[in-house]
Write a structure and sequence with these properties.
Layout lengths: L22 H9 L24 E6 L18 H4 L4 E3 L5 E3 L2 E6 L5 E6 L13 H11 L9 H5 L1 E6 L4 E6 L6 H7 L8 H4 L11 E7 L3 E6 L13 E6 L3 H9 L5 E3 L3 H4 L8 E17 L9 H10 L2 H8 L5 E2 L13 H4 L6 H11 L4 E8 L2 H16 L2 E8 L1 H10 L5 E6 L6 H7 L15 H11 L7 H17 L2 E14 L2 E2 L2 E2 L5 E2 L4 E2 L1
Parallel strand pairs: 1-10, 1-11, 14-15, 14-16
Antiparallel strand pairs: 2-3, 4-5, 5-7, 6-7, 8-9, 9-10, 11-17, 12-16, 12-17, 13-17, 18-21, 19-20
Helix pairs in contact: 9-12, 15-16, 16-17
């Protein structure tokens, strides 16, 4: 069954979620995760007590829902795994596990995939889930207007042959090593109401909670799906998602009990809660993304690789981890978390803080005492990142003017390639199959990225890494190393720190987890 991933285990592991990711992770393990170690991703589970049914879980979130980006990966899509399901999900070792697809077969050449679907699933409106819904989901992601990062993987599917209501054969133009990334990324939405979903008027899925309403700028209300296909789940009656954009206010809502849980809390905001017995902080070591600086290679002077390398040497990554992330995170010049098969300590430490070297490179490039715009999201954590980058660059003779964008505008600019000479943001997709980063993530996409960088060598390396039947094989690992070396040399994306996904919850919350794309899973969540 697992022929596409021959070197991966087929069963789930219970490795836990607290592997150290630097000094911050060590502090977390010692001080703040009293009951988190027994949690297995996607399952929740918490202590010996029988889960209590009922109650409303209130989730505080720093950004509003963005329905127009429903089919893209974004922190603005928190309801994803609450309203919708996916075909499969990964365990801690990136081994795919069943969800709406209960079994699958992959041909030895990776070009034919047979999916056997659950026959006991209904949408929230009572309509049965069938192979037609998977056909729609794949074809929907192939539409450019959906802005789905994994569109290229969906586009590799050239044939969809239904064999009854609950079996589907996919034909691929070529093998792709990240097919199961697609299966976990791709939500199964009701094909009859997709236009209403894209406006936030109506969301219909097969997930544990039904959509009641979205109050733009304020939050969302979800209710228990009494017909959910997982027996006796969910435990909760309701989920209230409150939009609280100010970090201080968000933490205050947790302290006062107005909110129970928040996902994606900045490390510096979570740090004061480490010693508080009223809270539990869970750090998902598979990674919550990475802070980075991007460079537009079509404008001067960032069209010069030497200038970009100077910027990479100028930034103090350790200070960013300690001050911006509160010690949670890993200073890294490469995008990969330690859990990734592409991770290398050599690549992580390739660029260190060396202002003298940065100044010398700028001198060689004839780019001393320059001024550049520096775009960033107006979210508090990313504003602080931009200010720290601004300070470090000023020390080597690069003056920057900060250009803040609201989160939706920042995402739009990222997708459309409308960023200035420099920008500071957060990227994802390094936590799954490594080739996904370079064929899907907007900053890295070899076919069209925000930096406007391209090269035949980059395209060849990425395509070789992507078109494989064994993404953990020696050839694939060699391609990942070469991709990392090219990224470090070209420096059109300058990685700064790998972030853990941080979940802060009051001690009464049990069973909440996240999937590999950072979406909240409350199937097993309950209030003790």
């Amino acid at each position: 069954m697992n022929t596409l991933y021959p070197s991966l285990p087929v069963g789930p592991t219970r490795r836990g979620l607290l592997r150290a990711g630097g000094a911050g992770a060590a502090l977390l393990t010692l001080a703040a995760c009293r009951s988190a170690a027994g949690r297995d991703e996607g399952r929740g589970g918490a202590g010996a007590a029988e889960p209590r049914r009922g109650g409303t879980l209130t989730v505080a979130h720093g950004v509003d829902f963005a329905p127009a980006l429903l089919f893209a990966q974004s922190s603005m899509n928190l309801p994803h795994r609450l309203v919708f399901n996916t075909l499969t999900r990964y365990d801690d070792d990136l081994a795919p596990q069943p969800e709406l697809a209960e079994a699958w077969d992959v041909s030895p050449d990776g070009t034919t995939v047979t999916l056997r679907l659950r026959d006991d699933v209904t949408f929230h409106d009572g309509r049965p889930f069938t192979a037609d819904d998977v056909v729609f989901a794949i074809e929907n992601l192939q539409v450019p207007e959906r802005a789905a990062q994994l569109r290229s993987t969906a586009a590799a599917v050239t044939g969809l042959d239904k064999r009854g209501d609950h079996e589907l054969v996919l034909t691929l133009d070529h093998p792709v090593g990240n097919l199961f990334d697609l299966f976990e990324f791709m939500i199964i939405a009701d094909r009859h109401t997709v236009e209403q979903a894209l406006t936030g008027e109506r969301l219909i899925g097969t997930g544990p909670f039904t959509f009641d309403e979205w109050r733009p700028g304020a939050g969302l209300t979800l209710s228990r799906n009494d017909a959910y296909w997982r027996p006796d789940r969910p435990y909760l009656d309701k989920v209230e998602i409150r939009v609280i954009t100010q970090a201080d206010s968000l933490i205050s809502s947790l302290r006062t009990g107005q909110s129970h849980l928040s996902l994606g809390v900045a490390g510096r905001d979570a740090a004061p809660l480490k010693e508080d017995p009223a809270f539990e902080i869970v750090s998902y070591a598979t990674g919550g993304g990475a802070y980075y600086v991007g460079a537009n290679v079509e404008v001067r002077p960032t069209d010069d690789k030497t200038v970009r390398q100077a910027i990479a040497w100028a930034i103090d990554r350790d200070r960013i981890v300690e001050q911006a992330l509160g010690g949670f995170g890993l200073a890294s010049a490469a995008p990969w978390p330690e859990s990734s098969p592409a991770y290398s300590e050599e690549h992580r430490t390739h660029y260190r803080h060396d202002p003298d070297r940065a100044r010398e490179l700028l001198r060689q490039a004839g780019a001393e005492n320059i001024s550049l715009p520096l775009g960033h999201s107006s979210l508090p954590g990313l504003t602080m990142l931009a200010e720290m980058v601004q300070y470090d660059l000023e020390q080597v003779g690069i003056r920057t003017e900060l250009q803040p964008y609201d989160p939706t505008n920042a995402q739009r600019r990222l997708i459309s390639g409308e960023m200035p000479a420099l920008w500071a943001l957060q990227h994802g997709f390094a936590q799954v199959t490594p080739s996904t980063l370079a064929v899907s993530a907007y900053p890295f996409n070899e076919a069209q990225n925000t930096s406007h960088f391209s090269s035949p060598e980059y395209t060849e390396l990425v395509q070789d890494a992507w078109r494989t039947t064994d993404p953990r094989g020696e050839e694939s690992l060699a391609r990942y190393r070469e991709i990392s070396e090219l990224l470090l040399d070209e420096a059109f994306i300058i990685d700064l720190a790998v972030l853990p996904a941080l979940q802060v919850a009051r001690a009464a919350v049990r069973g909440a987890t996240v999937n590999k794309f950072g979406y909240l899973n409350l199937d097993d969540a309950h209030l003790a």
